[in-house]
Every structure is written in structure tokens, then in C-alpha cells.
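Typical record was shown:
=====
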Amino acid sequence: MKLWLLRHGPPLVNSGTCYGASDVPADPQATLRAAQELAGQLPAGLALRSSPLRRCRQLADALCALRPDFACSEDPRLAEMDFGQWEGMRWDAIARAEFDAWMADFPGWRCGGGESVAQLMARVGQALADTRRAGSDALWITHGGVVRAVRLLAAGIALPQQAGDWPREGLAFGQAECIALAPDDAAQSGETP
């Protein structure tokens, strides 16, 4: 089975801002262009699940307007990581001691008192397990952190132990990638897709 991952359009925030779980909008023109470019490339009848955050909903709405064959629903497990008190701050304004504490306990540190990487991985893992159980191709409209988590989970890594284990390469705004997944029964038996 295949899972298409689509990242929202460029958010309307200042560069260098931590905006994880903040409900910021995306650039409407770039979002529409992304939907138009992808509408003809995706297969018919995909189950489309979107993060409930506005920047993803904008793209989901634009894509579903062009592709009414998609069954669209929201899934809060596809939201970006919640950075707590860091939300809305410039990354370079976060206290060095807090950032160092995160790097020292990359999977367990609750960033800004919000969410940890372990919590992000757990909820994305649950969503991925549900998608595998459904056994049909799907499309997620989501965020950079969720895309990276899916890449790790699809490679059999349930939890990165240090920051260097986190995928460096991201998915550009408004871009998609397709990941082949083993269906649930093959994943449990250890088969590969």
C-alpha cells in the first residue's frame, strides 16, 4: 500500500519563528498552486486525512474542491509538534539551557513544556497503524515534523534516541512524497513491502 504525505503551503509567519502547534494560516496563492499541481498526479479515491491546523485545512479544502473523489477527514494526530511556551518565539531567542536540555534528552524532553519527540512519535505511530489496518492507499496533509516521524517509523525506528537520528532532509512546503507501507498483517509478520 502507499501513503502520500503532503506538506502544507508556506506559513504566514516570520522566518526563524517556532510555530509548531500554532494555528497559523498558509499563503493562499501558494496553497492553491500546490493543490492545482497535485490534483492531477494523485490516484482516484484516496482517503485524505488532514491535520486540523488551518495551514493544512486550507490545502485539504483546495485539493478536495478540485478532487471531490477524495474522502476527507481531520485527524489531530497529524498536527505538528506542540512546542509549548516556545510557540511564537524566534528559535534563536529560546534559552540556550532549554535547548541544550532538549538535545541531552532528545526523545523525552517536553519542548517549552509542550510535547516531546516520544509523544509525537507515539501519536503519529498510532495514526500510521490505523492507516495500515485500513489496508488502502491514503493521503495525509500534514507538517514537516510528522513527515520526518513517518519516515522513521516506516524504516522501523520507533523512537530516535538522539537529535542526530532525526531526519535532516525535510519536505518542501506544498510538496508531496509517496512511501510504500507494509499492510498491517505483513508488518506484524515481519514481511517487507
